[in-house]
Amino acid sequence: MQVTTLDDTPVGPPGRIAAFLRPRVGGLPRTFWVLWAGTLLNRLGTMVEPFLGLYLTTARGLSLGQAGAVMAVLGVGSFAGQLAGGALADRLGRRVTLTFATVGTGAAMLALGYAHGIAMITAAALVLGLLLDMYRPAAQAMVADVISPAERPRAFGLLFWAVNLGWAVSMVLGGTLARQGFLWLFWIDALTCAAFGLLVWRAVPETRVRGTGADAAPGGFGRVLRDRVMVGYAAVLLCYTFVLMQCMTTMPLAMREVGLGPQDYGIAFATNGVLIIIVQPLVGAWLSRHDHSLVMAAGFVLVGTGYGLASTVSSLPGYAATIVVWTLGEITAASVLQAVVADLAPPHLRGRYSGLYGMAWSGGFLLAPLGGTQLLGAGGPALLWLSCSGLAFGAAAGQLALAPAIRRRRAAVIHPTFSS
User: Fold this and answer.
1) Phi, psi (rounded to 5 degrees) for 212
2) Which residue, 221, 343, 376, 377, is the most exposed by fewest CB within 10 angstroms?
3) In which element (H, E) is residue 69 found?
């Protein structure tokens, strides 16, 4: 006979497990869990992007310059795709936008895998870039549509965890499959993208909230850009993303400057994924209960500290230690980043607000290698890492400046009768 407590929680190890899981995964609607499962599936198949440069230079024989140009085109397409995805999510609906973007991404992925010649490869990369991240604003708006304001940080945190779990597995599988032939990566990536979209189409109802009265007309991105708080928040995120993305762009180059090789980088960077998978479920719910701007500022400071400490190390253990510090900052900030966007956005403009959020991330990702390599070339690793530290601290200061306005907007969302 299983002994239970008054609330039907089993006593003993099962009870302790249930007590641990309930505040972290309990109480969220079925729609969210379908989206979560699709996100995990999609990330498990994300194998082309990490190995695209290697594919272009080996399987397709492009020069380093040509491969860099193709990847830049992919990035520009992603930037524009976030904008288009946000508009479509508000006008056509979350469900149709997400399905179109993910199924289209699968088709574009195969087109790139079979393309020959620089012209065809570049054209395929542009189409893929436009579609690749188009689903993100729709997915983020869908979460905001179906989750209460108080629970959104927890929901977005679970999605962050799923993304990183899928990414960690896909990196290992992708490296193994690449030895059998790069086309395996394109097919798996394409099929998981399409499966994500079809899963949402079959199992998730449309969640779009239509405006009423004066809000009935969507109003375009002009209304988003007139929101000074959201624009300021996007600027803060652009600085933060520029710093964070150095781990995937200039960090291996900086480690090479001090005599460390690709294998050392792989071992050190694995620390990031392991920490996120282990730590985020433990602290995400707790962090989300605190003031969002203070949590983000603390995360930005930790990220800046971690990158700043990188200017003082030259060994593999030293770099791994700095990655631990800034990863803890990444986990801290990620616990509330997207929830702030949902709080700031009017319900009928959630897609566009999420699109601006995505554009800030895409912009930071585009600028990171350009600015990072310039800093590395001008003053070596020390200048690069100290500059990143300064930018992260500046992002923290900017977030604290926005904090009063963000608090007022969140209070108005949680308590609709609140008046600022």
Assistant:
1) -125, 155
2) 377
3) helix 64-91
pLDDT attached to residue 234: 96
Question: In whole angstroms, what is the distance from residue 23 CA to residue 122 CA?
Answer: 47
Residues 101 and 195 in one domain: yes
Q: Please identify which residue in the block is written with the tokens 């990620």.
A: 334
pTM here? 0.84
Residue 64: how many CB atoms within 10 A of its CB?
Answer: 10
Distance CA 306, CA 137 (A): 30
DSSP string computed for 198-249: HHHHHH----PPPP-GGGSS--HHHHHHT-HHHHHHHHHHHHHHHHHTHHHH
Residues 337, 401: one domain?
yes
* SS3 letters across 39-70: HHHHHHCCCHHHHHHHHHHHCCCCCHHHHHHH
Q: Tell me the per-residue pLDDT of 80-89, one tens digit each, with 9 for 90 and over.
A: 999 999 999 9
Can you give the CATH number for the domain in which 400 is found?
1.20.1250.20
C-alpha span between 202 and 46 (Å, rounded): 22
235-252 pLDDT, tens digit per residue, is 999 999 999 999 887 888
* Residue-wise pLDDT tens digits, 105-139: 999 999 999 999 999 999 999 999 999 999 999 99
For residue range 158-173, list pLDDT tens digits in order: 999 998 888 888 877 8
Whole-number pLDDT of residue 213: 47
Return the half-sphere exposure (C-beta side, CA atoms, 13 A cut-off) of residue 330. 26
Whether the CB-CB separation of 87 and 219 falls below 8 Å is answered with: no
Residue 297 lies in a domain: yes
- Do residues 200 and 243 both lie within one domain? no
Tell me the Cα Rg of the chain: 22
For residues 193-202, give the mean pLDDT. Answer: 95
Nearest to 118 by CA among 129, 126, 107: 126
Q: What is the distance between the terminal CA atoms of the chain, rounded to a whole angstrom?
A: 56
The one-letter amino acid at 20: F
Work out the angle between the directed axes of helices 316-334 and 292-309 (0-180°, nearest 10).
Answer: 170
Q: What's the pLDDT band for 50 if we cut at 50, 70, 90?
A: confident
Q: What is the pLDDT of residue 10?
A: 59
